Structures are given as structure tokens and as C-alpha cells.
Amino acid sequence: MANLILIACLAILAILITISLFLAGGYLWWRHKRSQLQFIEPTEDENSSSYSLKVPQAGVQDIYDVVTQPSKPPQPQQTQLTTTPANPLQNNLNRKLNGFLNLKTPLIGSSSPAVPSKTSGSNSTADNSKDATNKNFSMTDMYIDNCDTSENVGQIHFSLEYDFQNTSLILKVLQGKELPAKDLSGTSDPYVRVTLLPDKKHRLETKIKRRTLNPRWNETFYFEGFPIQKLQSRVLHLHVFDYDRFSRDDSIGEVFLPLCQVDFGTKQSFWKALKPPAKDKCGELLSSLCYHPSNSILTLTLIKARNLKAKDINGKSDPYVKVWLQFGEKRIEKRKTPIFNCTLNPVFNESFSFNVPWEKIRECSLDVMVMDFDNIGRNELIGRILLAGKNGSGASETKHWQDMISKPRQTIVQWHRLKPE
């Protein structure tokens, strides 16, 4: 009898504990949801093909989205989000994303820039305008690979429009044409992923069009709360993928459009040829060159690499970069970056300066080798490039060097495809 009473008491106690945990969990979940930014649900049916993102209205400082130098990182700044009552028209403009998101920070375009000081005189105004242009194009070079390619992977049709009254960018992804087949059936299941660089975290996607090489998406995306000045430092990235249910989606092609090159006075329509994904097994290297004739300093900055060839049995590499300054065939000076373990996409952010007289700048070259470090045995070469004015390892490398000479005191950023030995 005593055992039965003990078992009943334990059962009741267990039920009470379970109920308490359930109520506590529900309360914490409710508090968590209240503290996060919510998207306004659409009032129309789910077949609507229009989406929007809301970001806080920019203040005076948000007008200037400055691309800061690595030596002066931006100070973190918290953004206070406010909500306003939505009217029916606003509800029609605010569409649901292809996946419900809750974020405490704006999805696209949060900045903490410094406001340039107001100065008098036309020279100062011209200098500021020139600096802003240089920064925009430097940021553009960070993402755009200017290497020529003869492979045809189709085209994409889209349009851009700017709503000055509501400070909103309106993107319409219309259609694709002559996409390559990625499936065994001789077709693809394409969709488009949309980002506004440099923000890579938050992305929008079109719906998937099944079994077609000439898809028609006809979908509209609204990027709200973007003053026209802020858009000047953004790069529109459209990346077409082939959907695969059982494996990773295949990249079909991509296109980059610097918004500083778009005239928003009228609605613009574009047909752009897609660029194929990088197939070079060695990977790619992003670097910059700068030469100061006044003090004869040549500066090479190794920013990052991507899609490096795996050299280890774990499918990774331990990359580092070795740089030789050469005059003709003679090696003069060597520099190295630190080793980055177990990665195929290292971020180096290393700068090397060399003393090169102006009269010899056209005769010298930089032999840049991306290596895989090995504890046992000899370090292996992943890929290399030769930056030179005459006999570079490719047209891209030669052009990079010539641009550096023709634009002294300017930092020239460019992607290069690594070559095997």
C-alpha cells in the first residue's frame, strides 16, 4: 500500500514539473518573439510575387556610407528600430520573404559612417567628389572579377527603378534566357538569389521555375529606406542557381551591377550576360597594388583568397602566401603571410612594402605563390600569379600592373585566377 502511495505522489510531482517547464518555455518564447523585429504579413494571397525589406529611415549621417580603410575600423553603433501603424497601401507594399526571418538588426544597409566636414571652396568639393568615386570603384573591384570568359551560360533580364518619395529601390527580376542544362533530363530548375553587396548575410530569392532553360520569374523586390546617396556604394548581385532536392544547388552564373553606374532618373531595363562560376581548380586571389613615386614604395596587399584547391586528406588546405620581388630573373626580397589552418577561403589582409625606384618599376615583378603548409614533408604549391608590366602570368596580371603605374598613389584592387605550376 505504501509503495502505491509513493508511486502516485511521484507521478503527480512529475506531471507538475512537466507543466511548469512547459509554461516557462512558452513564456520565454513569447518574450523572445516580442523582442525581435517582425515583418508585416501580406494581405494578399501567397501567389503574390512581390517582396520587400524595411530598414530604418536614414538620418543625416546615414546619407554618407563611407567605405572605411582597414587601419580605421568603424565604431559599432546600435540602431534603434521603430514601428509605425501600417495602412492598407503600406501592407500592399510590404510583402513576405521566401522564408520568415526575425532579426534585431536591419536586413540590408545598416551603416555607421562618419559625416564629412563642410568646407568652403570649389577645390574641396572636387576633392570630396573624387574621393567618393575612388571609394565606390574600390569597393566594386572587391566583388567583380574582370577576367574575360568565352563560356556562355545564358542571360538575365531585370529592371531597376527608384521611388524618391519613399526612398525605395525597386528591383524586378523578369526572365532568363538560354541557361545551361544542369539536370539529367536536359533542363534546369533555376531561381535567382539577390543581394546588395557588401551585405552578404541577408538574401532574397525568387521562386523556383521547374524544368526550363528560359524561366520567367516576373518578381518584384522592394529595398526600403535607402537614400539615393547610400545606393551609390552598393553593388547589386544576381546569382542564378539550379535547385537540387537531394544535393547542393548548382551555380549557373552570376552578374554584378555597381549601382553608382545606374541612372535612377528613369526606370532602367537590363539584359546582362551571366558569368560562369570559377572553374579554376587552383582558386582565386584578391590583391591590390599601389606605387608612390615620391618615396619609391611599392605596396602589395593580399586581401583574401577563395575556392582554393584542397591539398589535405580532410578536403582542406593550410594556405599561406609567399611573395618574391624580382628584377628580371633575379630574386631580390621575400615576404610571407601567416598560415591559415583548415580553410579554402582564407582572409589574409597582409600588406608588404618594397623599395623600388621609379626608373626600375617597369622592369621588376612580383611572384605571388599560394602554398599549402605541411608538418611532414615539403610544402605544396596551390597556385601562383606573376604581377609584371611586360611578361605577367596573364592579361589580368599585366593590366593590373599597368593600371598601378598609370594611376600612382591609388590603390588598384583586382581578382586573379591562380595558375598551376
Describe the structure.
One of its GO terms (molecular function) is clathrin binding. This is Synaptotagmin-7 isoform X2. Keywords: Repeat. The protein has 421 residues and is α+β, with helices and mostly antiparallel strands. The chain has 5 helices and 17 strands. The strands form 4 sheets. It has a 5-stranded mixed sheet with strand order 1-6-3-2-9, with no helix packed on it. A 4-stranded antiparallel sheet has the order 5-4-7-8. The chain has a 4-stranded antiparallel sheet with strand order 14-11-10-17. Strand 2 and strand 3 form a beta hairpin. The longest helix is centred in the N-terminal third of the chain and has 33 residues. About 24% of the residues have low confidence.
Main attributes?
421 residues; alpha+beta; five-stranded mixed beta sheet; 17 strands
The protein's oligomeric status is single chain
Percentage of helical residues? 10-25%
Low-confidence region ranges: 34-48, 54-138
- Which geometry do the CA atoms define? extended
The count of helical stretches stands at: 5
Give the number of DSSP strands.
Answer: 17
Termini separation (Å)?
Answer: 85 Å
H/E topology pattern: HEHHEEEEEHEEEEEEEEEEHE
Structural class: alpha+beta
Largest sheet: 5 strands, mixed
Average predicted local confidence, pLDDT: 76
